[in-house]
Design a protein that fits this description.
It is a single chain. It is built from nine helices and eleven strands. Helix 1 runs parallel beside helix 9, helix 6 crosses helix 7 and helix 6 packs across helix 9. The longest helix is centred in the C-terminal third of the chain and has 24 residues. The model has no long low-confidence stretch (mean pLDDT about 95).
Length: about 280
């Protein structure tokens, strides 16, 4: 079996077209969404990610508000920039690109939850647990959207999430068990006994452990959907958690790169636009 591609790049392009229409509708009402970013230091990967986010914004009409700070910037200086973006009416939503080398939990906690574009503020994660509307984490939302747009059945499916990190694994498990998704979820991690047996029982596998080629073909049920959300480096190149031969067994497969990564960008843009739309509802 050759897996059907879960194409994050094509889906990102489609979502951009949809969002451009929503941004145009906001413009007619005198509102332009604005994405703020705070970047500390000169890490090449961080610069690439921030540049890509602002390129996406330019393509759909979202304003960019950049704060690129030098290496050695202090905690107090970063938090002062965060307070400025909290107060800036032109900034609809923003993020502090990690890693900063500083106390990132304190920085994240200083962000106004309403402007938390990553959906990872403690308040917003709490609202997710309680099932109340709030900005949602971008990567888990992107994974669910990718499945939906390729008609992969989620309701009633057994999903195995490999990885319990705060950016993917834990929030994804919560989101998949909502009534709107109605999946049954098993979360696996480094303490899991017989990982292969758990993965082999899954209708949908999400690999987010950061362990290259962790998921092999013999671990995957024929016809299952497999999404690679793992990020690590091998010989200087990005490597995912899913081995190449899984494509011959899976029914659907999101590659890495080109699958979940673009969907994270798509959901970040969506969060910016939705925040602007909510601001209009608040004024009404």
């Amino acid at each position: 079996m050759t897996a059907t591609l879960l194409d994050g790049k094509a889906t990102l392009a489609a979502i951009k077209r949809e969002l451009a229409g929503r941004v145009a509708a906001l413009a007619e009402r005198g509102v332009q969404p604005g994405l703020g970013t705070v970047l500390v230091g000169d890490d090449p990967g961080s610069h690439w990610y921030v540049n890509a986010k602002h390129k996406d914004c330019a393509e759909i009409g979202v304003a960019s508000i950049r704060h690129d700070l030098p290496a050695g910037t202090t905690q107090a200086e970063v938090e002062a920039v965060v307070r400025g973006l909290n107060a800036d009416p032109a900034c609809t939503a923003f993020l502090v690109q990690q890693p900063t080398g500083l106390d990132e939990f304190a920085i994240l906690s200083a962000v106004d939850p309403v402007k938390d574009v990553d959906g990872l503020h403690p308040t917003n994660l709490g609202w997710l647990v309680l099932g109340k509307p709030a900005p949602l984490p971008c990567t888990p939302t992107g994974i669910i959207e990718l499945l939906r747009r390729h008609d992969v059945p989620i309701a009633g499916a057994h999903v195995v999430v490999v990885g319990r990190g705060i950016t993917v694994g834990r929030p994804l498990a919560l989101m998949l068990t909502r009534r709107s998704e109605n999946a049954t979820v098993t979360v696996c991690h480094t303490g899991t006994r017989d990982l292969a047996a758990h993965v082999r029982s899954a209708d949908i596998v999400v690999a987010a452990a950061g362990s290259p080629s962790l998921i092999t073909a013999d671990m995957v049920k024929p016809g299952a959907a497999v999404l690679d959300a793992g990020v690590s480096r091998v010989d200087g190149k990005i490597a995912g958690d899913v081995a190449a031969e899984v494509a011959e067994v899976a029914g659907w497969l999101s590659p890495n790169p080109g699958g979940v990564g673009p969907m994270t960008r798509a959901m970040l843009l969506t969060n910016v636009v939705e925040a602007a739309e909510r601001s209009l509802e608040t004024r009404a």
